[in-house]
Each structure stands twice: as C-alpha cells, then as structure tokens.
Design brief:
107 residues
Length: 107
C-alpha cells in the first residue's frame, strides 16, 4: 500500500531531508528537525557569468537603440536629398511632373 506522504533520503535535498507531498504537488524539502533545506549558494563564477550575460544583452540593446536613433534621421535626410536631386534632373531635361491632386466628391 502506498501512502500519500512518503520520505526519501538523499533525493530530497541532502542527508537527513525528506520530501512531503504527492508526486504532482509542490515539493517542500525539509530536514527531520522541521527546518527547510537551504539551496546551494551560487559560486562567484556563476554570479560573474550571469552579470556578464546581463551586461552583454544590455550592450546589444543599447547598440540597437543607438542605431535606430541615429540612422532614421540620416535615412530621412538621404531620402530628401535624393528627391531634390530627382526633381532637379527632371527640371534640367524639361520633364514636367504634374502635381498629385486628390479630388474629393461631395464635400
């Protein structure tokens, strides 16, 4: 007969700890004295790697923002210069481009 509560020795978080609960429920690791098992502390290398990853992602985000902020105005200026050059070339060759007129009926 299986019990709803079961104990496991070394699987549940260390020597002298046991697991309380059903298989599909939340697992609470406690010692036999009734205190919670402390998770292992992160090493300095783990903390440094996480910090390095965060700084790298922050740098990539800052670079993407910088590119967006500075390239959009440059592209707008290049587009305006291209349009003006096009209009000057058309005027030199005597080609007249009629203006675009949108006519609205009933107003």
């Amino acid at each position: 007969m299986t019990s709803r509560f079961h104990t496991e020795g070394h699987d549940a978080g260390g020597p002298g700890a046991f697991r309380h609960g059903r298989q599909d429920d939340l697992v609470v690791d406690m010692t036999r004295d009734g205190e919670f098992v402390q998770p292992p502390r992160s090493s300095i290398a783990d903390i440094a790697l996480r910090l390095l990853g965060f700084v790298m992602l922050l740098g990539i985000g800052a670079l993407a923002f910088w590119l967006a902020v500075f390239t959009i105005p440059v592209l707008i200026i290049v587009g305006l210069i291209g349009y003006l050059v096009f209009r000057v070339q058309m005027a030199r060759h005597g080609v007249r481009v009629p203006p675009i007129v949108i006519m609205r009926r009933g107003r």
